[in-house]
Amino acid sequence: MNVLTRSQASLKLNKSVALGETKSIFSLSRSFYPSIFHHGTRKIHSGAGIGNVHDQMLPTPDFDGMFKLIEQPKTASVIGAPMTHGQPFVGTDHGPQLLRNENLLQHLTSLGWRVHDKADLNFDSLSNSLMTENERIETSKAKNSKVVGKGCSMLADMMEKEILEGRFPVVLGGDHSIGIGTLAGILRARPNVGVIWVDAHADLHTPETSDSGNMHGMSVGLLMEGVADNSHTIPGFEWLQNSLDGNPQSLLSPDSIVYIGLRDVDAAERNNIRKNNIKAFTMHDVDNFGIGKVMEMALAHLLDGNPDRPLHLSYDIDAVDPMLAPATGTTVRGGLNYREAHFVAEAVAMSGALTSVEMVELNPTLTDGQGSRETVELGLGILTSLMGKSII
Ligand SMILES: [Mn+2]
């Protein structure tokens, strides 16, 4: 038997680092990262750092109890949504591939899921056919709205279809503008959905209130009742007026969403949160109550009196502190720590009500190779926690 104790394994790995065999530690293909990362010196994140013992991804004993609203055999639909046009940086399109390279699909089967791989939506063709310099200028209040809108329409249709076929969508971003498509599709299939939005930002802008015009800051705003009632007038978003069956697109009511992790909220968003009484647990609340109490209150807000309500969770990796998740476009200091980031996911999975998830804003080009690997590994860990991984 070739079984190593934890300290032996650690010694062995340290030795291979000394010998320069770092490739053996990381299952991510190093060649995938831009070449500048191969030669850079390792950036030291004080206090951060990746562990060197790989998780065994044991199946969860109470798997069926954790996803009670999903039909047997429980099937996850993995959907890549490699969007970059909702924000200024290239690189978020690598998110789906990075998570796949980390064996996300195999991990899901280890946890007990059947996995239906829907591959990546083809957004490349959109940018070529829909993006001209003129459009960039004309739609500056909602930048690249034709491309973002068309991509979100494709995603919304796929979400609706997968949900109606009884599957559990796992959406891999892409920047957070894809959340417009994810949410729109879910709202058509499940108008009573409760949404948990884990993010440093509220993403509650509309083209009128946004200074930047970046659509990744509008994913909640464009679908919220009382915030944006004319989203279908944005070029590229005409489809939002009606759902596939011709009925008006369902909007999200302000009491159907809970924010977790907020710490960078603009004035207009703040007004809307206050005016509409939207439940928001900021980092101040995490400090004040602890993450356990915050999640208890968040789930109670959505599920009390309605225990069979389906839940969707949208996880923007920038909710996590940039020391732990540096590879993302809009980092804000003072975020969730490593365990808090996982606890959010574990608590939502344990509610039994989760029916879809989304992981967004991973961008490996914005930091060095080490920072990227840590961020992707964290994103993967959070996703597997959401999908039922439990410690014992
Ligand atoms: Mn976001």
Question: What report would you give on this structure?
Answer:
This protein has 392 residues and is of the alpha/beta class. The chain has a single domain (69-386), classed as Arginase, Chain A. The chain is built from 14 helices and eight strands. It has helices at residues 6-18, 36-39, 63-66, 95-101, 104-111, 124-130, 133-138, 145-164, 178-189, 267-275, 283-289, 291-303, 338-350, 369-386; strands at residues 75-81, 114-120, 168-173, 194-198, 257-262, 279-282, 311-316, 354-360. Strands 2-1-3-8-7-4-5-6 form an eight-stranded parallel beta sheet, sandwiched between helices. Helix 8 (145-164) packs parallel to helix 9, helix 11 crosses helix 12 (291-303) and helix 12 runs parallel beside helix 13. The longest helix has 20 residues, at 145-164. The two termini are 24 Å apart. Manganese (II) ion binds next to loops.
The strands making up the biggest β-sheet line up spatially as 2-1-3-8-7-4-5-6
Could you say how many structural domains there are in total? 1
- Characterize the biggest β-sheet: 8 strands, parallel
The number of strands is 8
Helix content: 25-40%
Strand-residue proportion: 5-15%
CATH structural fold name: Arginase, Chain A
| Small-molecule components bound | manganese (II) ion
Q: What's the pLDDT, averaged over the residues?
A: 87
CATH class membership: Alpha Beta
**Low-pLDDT segments:** 1-47
Helix and strand pattern:
HHHEHHEHHHEHEEHEHHEHEH
Q: Quick one: CATH superfamily?
A: Ureohydrolase domain
CATH architecture: 3-Layer(aba) Sandwich
Radius of gyration, whole Å = 20 Å
Assign an overall shape.
globular
End-to-end C-alpha gap: 24 Å
Q: Structural class of the secondary structure composition?
A: alpha/beta
Contiguous helical run count: 14
